[in-house]
Design brief:
The complex is a heterotrimer. Chain A is mainly α. Chain A contains 14 helices and no strands. The longest helix of chain A has 33 residues. The relative contact order of chain A is 0.10. In chain B, helix 1 crosses helix 2, helix 10 packs antiparallel against helix 11 and helix 12 packs antiparallel against helix 15. Classes of the chains: A mainly alpha, B alpha+beta, C alpha/beta.
Chain lengths: 342, 350, 423
């Protein structure tokens, strides 16, 4: 352990406060130097890559990949036992059970009606939520990109809800929207009739969209804002020299240049929207009726929250969901790559 | 039309204020109300007593009914103002209530008992913060212990996450080796599985390793986040390879290149991952609930939820608990907000 | 140097203590959840027990009910359970329960005391094990806002009045006092089972196989949906949530309903939260053609097979169940006793006069429970029969299903869960 290990951590934030601790840490982190040098002398460049991936890969294999393999086994077995070895093999029964419908647009005609309520609700939710989220994030980013006094403050305020746990987010809004909540008091104050915000299907659905945008918008706004700020100012100057109408500048110049950031926002936003669960589960419990039952809630209640756990069905549903998501992501990644090239 | 467009394109507003400036500030101030107002409302409500919470319309400040000591009565009596009749405007204290009649007494003349219909009177209220929502909650358990457990898990998991993920991201972005893309794709693919469904398989693995009721049982599964690897890799891809080549010329070891060159340069992306990791671990509830079954190893989230029964919900505790859990995150954010927002901005764009 | 010496001394001193630990017998872990103050009360008593039995240390882990419902079965499956847990639904963990009969000093007396409720922890009629200690009895019953009845000048329906009579009276009161809804039932199949049984629902066929939808069931279900439609029943309580339990206490507390069909566990909240807002009382159970039944219920401390100290666990539970201690426990937690001995002896609650009256009324309602109610409660997977009822009827109220479709769905949901238990 040499005394030279002072340097690198100076750059990472948060270490200023405990410089001593940082020094010790830096010293410890110089230790791998020796074995790594030895490994380097033995292995070619490519193999060395595996060495760096190894710790992550080991933990990943054990706690992320293996559970998915067990999940696949659950999906092809039945019963309510939890230990994989106790579960009887049932083949594709769970999948066919989920996918059997008289008429796919009418969940009531399906064997697993709640699954299909979940599918259609999630689809509607994703389309509306992702579009609105993109729109509002972009608008906010554009506004914040202007010469605004107190930009840092506004940026922080819009970002703040991102830090809250989904349960907290849901409780905050549940408290506001409940029958005797402040939202209804405000309605009456304005002379309107109080509304049962979470008891009317359309309202409840709209609120789940709103609350999820409220909670996540700040993150996407920041990504887009960074994208906007990375666009060199001289491009605009050239455009204004050409006396191009500003609206067209935005459409022809800004939007294309912002495309990479927009795609990142789109991919992340889509994955999150499809997996929407905690906020809604605490806020509406899927109600009224089944108006806000989304797919992951179906998976959770079927496999986890019932006294008879149908883990096979839940796992099968999760695999179907993952499959669709994977295809969508790959398409987007391809789009992103060609976008980068173009 | 041109004005809208100006608003959409301007990077630097110049000249005097036009309506787009008004619209921008209007939008932002409305945004502040919508983004921050609900949190403030929650915090204000958390200081209300149980009966204050069910008041409608809700009052802005926490209030409680005034009670007065009346000679001849053991405990203080609640005070009312009489609405109409010969005693209109007078303040009387209630002895007891029988059906739709109340027996009341004038504190100035405690001898005579007066009968008043219950709907002909108004409670006398005063501002009073119900701090006992908090003190009860904190007194219920060993707050320091749970705070320490949570801080321990959060810190260790975050340090490990940063280290392990950045090493992997370094390899995935700066080396060419067979199987590299497959590794990356498999990691990405597991992102698509909803986390709730792998809870049980994960627990079985943790149990096999003997890590139940152990903070490490919460820490290890959290370390190899695909999101973290994805984010860091995307960032490291943008670092110029020349720097690394130059270091190799100087006979620096690969470890040194990673530790002394790539890592410091990735500081913004690491900062983002750090704050996300802290946030994830701090807010985590379901997984610790499954892993940690002994109260001495509980996290704060778990302990604060432990009063949730089968049949009842106490809103006053629930609100106080919510404020307690979001407080530390808020403080950290206030201190670090510059780093966080700038870090995300610079990491996200690449 | 001196510091080093004292450190060494400390180490040496700790050696005998260390060696003594194995002799210092058992450390019992109890996974507990509270509806009121059950866990703190248990802790107080457990500390007293440890004073009398210094060889047994008891740790109580108070956790959310969600953890008992969702995590405990997973932990038990992986062999990581506690020694004792407080539970309500034995179904998913039946095979992990340990019979403590051989570890009890006087199993016969214990069984005589807790008889009916011990059966709820058993798996079928052939099972005679003693798996735990019931911590209370609950019973569902109507809670009435007497002030509203007084204001409307309508008498509270007497014992023997049917649900139809009740709704007529309640409607009258609601109309006269401008109360939004006449009554509400918690969104829970368990709560609704009482009215269903009163109207003749049997829940099981002659062989004891679940058969939920029958004529009695339909008679009550269609009535209730009708009451929800015309506004007598507060349907929002049921429709609001897509699944799971929701109570209507807030509605009752704020006088938005005249009658609240809930249960004995609400007494504590009624006392502290309604206060003198209005007068309330527990009325006698509404009737139907078949019976005047609510539903019994209760939680229990159960012991597990994986436990390393089964003897000590049994000793603690037997002590906690002894008449004097148990009566004290009931008074501390404001619960109704599950022990015949304590029921006879009587419990002195620390309640207001209204609360004491309520406890008496609930005790009287227990005597009216139908055998069907006991059979249903004694079925280890009762929640798999009851949850679909609440979920599907809510869908009818929300206009997503017709009643007939709901009947079909309830039948298939139940069949489905039963098939999952015995593949």
């Amino acid at each position: 352990m040499s005394a030279t290990g002072i340097g690198p951590d100076r750059n990472s934030p948060g270490q200023h406060a405990s410089r001593l601790c940082g020094k010790a840490f830096g010293a410890v982190m110089n230790v791998p130097e020796v074995p790594m040098r030895w490994a380097q002398s033995r292995l070619s460049g490519g193999r060395l890559g595996w060495l760096f991936v190894a710790p992550n890969l080991a933990v990943f294999a054990l706690f992320s990949f293996l559970p998915v393999v067990i999940d696949i086994w659950f999906a092809v077995t039945g019963g309510s036992e939890l230990l994989p070895q106790d579960r009887p093999y049932v083949g594709a029964n769970n999948f066919s059970d989920l996918l059997t419908c008289g008429n796919y647009t009418d969940p009531n005609s399906c064997v697993r009606d709640l699954f299909w309520y979940g599918v259609w609700n999630t689809l509607e939710f994703v389309v509306i939520q992702v579009a609105l989220m993109l729109g509002f994030s972009l608008l906010t980013a554009v506004v914040l990109n202007r010469k605004i006094v107190g930009r840092g403050f506004f940026r922080a305020v819009f970002f703040y809800p991102v830090l809250l746990s989904p349960v907290v987010v849901a409780l905050i809004w549940k408290w506001i929207l409940q029958r005797n909540g402040v939202a209804n008091a405000a309605m009456e104050g304005l002379g309107a009739k109080p509304v049962e915000w979470l008891l009317n299907g359309t309202w409840a659905f709209s609120w789940t969209v709103f609350v999820s945008i409220w909670a996540h918008m700040g993150f996407y706004t920041l990504i887009l804002l960074a994208g906007l700020q990375a666009i060199p100012a001289d491009i605009y100057e050239a455009a204004s020299m050409d006396a191009a109408p500003p609206w067209r500048v935005f459409r022809r110049l800004t939007l294309p240049l912002l495309m990479p950031s927009l795609i990142v926002v789109f991919v992340l936003g889509l994955i999150r929207a499809v997996q929407i669960f905690d906020e809604v589960y605490v806020l509406t419990g899927g109600g009224p009726g089944t108006a806000t039952v989304y797919l992951v809630q179906y998976i959770y209640t079927t496999g986890f929250a019932q006294s008879v756990r149908q883990y096979g069905l839940a796992s099968a549903a999760s695999l179907l969901l993952a499959g669709v998501l994977l295809v969508l992501t790959l398409i987007q990644l391809r789009g992103m790559r060609s976008g980068e090239r173009g | 039309m041109a004005n809208i467009a100006k608003m959409l394109t301007a990077t630097r507003g110049r000249g005097r204020w036009d309506w787009t400036d008004w619209a921008s500030y209007g939008y932002l101030i409305l945004g502040v109300c919508i983004m921050f107002g609900p949190v403030l409302w929650l915090a204000a409500s958390s200081l209300k007593s149980e009966s204050g919470l069910s008041e409608y319309p809700p009052s802005l400040l926490p209030t409680e009914q005034v009670r007065v000591s009346v000679p001849g009565y053991a405990s203080p009596l609640p005070l009312f103002t009489i609405d109409a009749g010969e005693r209109a405007g007078k303040q009387l204290a209630e002895i007891r209530r029988i059906g739709i009649q109340a027996q009341m007494v004038d504190p100035a003349d405690p001898k005579a008992v007066i009968r008043v219909p219950v709907d002909g009177r108004t409670k006398v209220m005063r501002v009073h913060a119900a701090w006992d929502n908090y003190t009860d909650l904190i007194a219920k358990f060993n707050f320091g212990r749970y705070l320490w457990n949570t801080v321990f898990i959060t810190t260790i998991a975050t340090v490990l996450t940063l280290l392990v993920n950045s090493m992997a991201a370094f390899a995935l972005s700066k080396y060419r080796f067979s199987g590299r893309d497959a590794v990356f794709l498999i990691m990405l693919a597991t992102l698509m599985i909803p986390p709730t469904i792998v809870l049980v398989p994960n627990y079985l693995i943790i149990a096999t390793l003997g890590l139940t009721s152990n903070p490490w049982g919460v820490i290890w599964p959290a370390v190899a986040t695909p999101t973290g690897v994805f984010m860091l890799r995307q960032y490291m891809l943008t670092l110029p390879d020349d720097l690394i080549e130059a270091a190799r010329m100087d006979n620096a070891s690969e470890w040194r290149i990673y530790w002394r060159i790539v890592l410091p340069l990735s500081a913004p992306a690491l900062a983002v991952l750090a704050i996300f990791s802290v946030m994830w671990r701090w807010n985590e509830f379901l997984w610790p609930m499954v892993v940690l079954s002994r109260s001495e190893s509980f996290t704060l989230q778990l302990a604060l939820n432990s009063f949730q029964g089968e049949l009842t919900t106490a809103w006053n505790y629930l609100l106080a608990m919510t404020v307690l859990t979001l407080l530390p995150v808020t403080v950290v954010f206030l201190v670090l907000q510059k780093y966080i927002t700038q870090g995300i901005a610079s990491a996200g764009v690449k | 140097m001196s510091r080093l010496l004292s450190l060494a001394g400390l180490l040496l001193a700790s050696v005998p203590a260390f060696a003594a630990t194995p002799a210092l017998a058992a450390d019992i872990r109890i996974a507990c959840y509270s509806d009121g103050n059950e866990c703190p009360a248990t802790k107080t008593l457990a500390e007293r027990f440890t004073q009398q039995n210094p060889d047994i240390k008891i740790s109580i882990d108070e956790m959310p009910y969600k953890a008992i419902l969702e995590s405990l079965p997973v932990q038990l499956a992986a062999g990581n359970g506690p020694d004792i847990a407080r539970i309500t639904l034995p179904g998913p963990i039946l095979k992990y329960l340990a019979d403590m009969r051989s570890n009890l000093k006087d199993a016969a007396a214990y069984e005589a005391n807790f008889g009916p409720q011990l059966a709820w922890l058993r798996n079928g009629k052939e099972d005679h094990g003693i798996y735990g200690l019931p911590t209370q009895t609950t019973v569902s019953a109507p809670i009435v806002n007497k002030t509203l009845f007084d204001q409307a000048n309508v008498p509270i329906p007497a014992a023997g009045a049917t649900w139809d009579d009740w709704v007529v009276a309640l409607d009258k009161v609601a109309k006269a006092t401008k109360t939004p809804n006449a009554f509400a039932i918690d969104r829970s199949g368990h709560r609704f089972a009482g009215p269903l049984i009163s109207y003749g629902a049997k829940f099981f066929d002659a062989n004891g196989t679940p058969a939920v939808v029958d004529d009695g069931f339909k008679a009550m279900a269609s009535r209730y949906v009708g009451w929800a439609k015309d506004g007598s029943a507060d349907k929002d309580v049921w429709v609001a949530s897509g699944g799971g339990y929701r109570d209507a206490f807030e509605e009752f507390k704020n006088a938005k309903i005249v009658m609240y069909f809930s249960g004995s566990w609400q007494v504590h909240r009624l006392e502290t939260q309604v206060g003198d807002g209005f007068e309330w009382l527990i009325a006698s159970e509404p009737c139907g053609p078949a019976s005047c039944s609510g539903m019994p219920g209760g939680a229990a401390f159960v012991t597990f097979k994986g436990s390393k100290s089964p003897k000590e666990s049994a000793r603690f539970l037997e002590w906690l169940g002894s008449d004097k201690i148990y009566a004290e426990y009931m008074a501390m937690t404001s619960n109704l006793p599950a022990s015949a001995g304590v029921q006879k002896m009587g419990v002195t609650y620390h309640l207001t006069p209204a609360g004491n009256e309520a406890m008496k009324a609930f005790t009287a309602d227990i005597t009216k429970l139908s055998p069907v109610a006991y059979q249903l409660q004694g079925f280890p997977y009762s929640s798999s029969l009851l949850n679909p009822i609440a979920d599907r009827l809510s869908q009818v109220m929300a206009g997503q299903l017709t009643l007939d479709q709901a009947y079909d769905r309830i039948t298939s949901d139940v069949k489905d869960s039963m098939a999952a238990i015995k593949p």
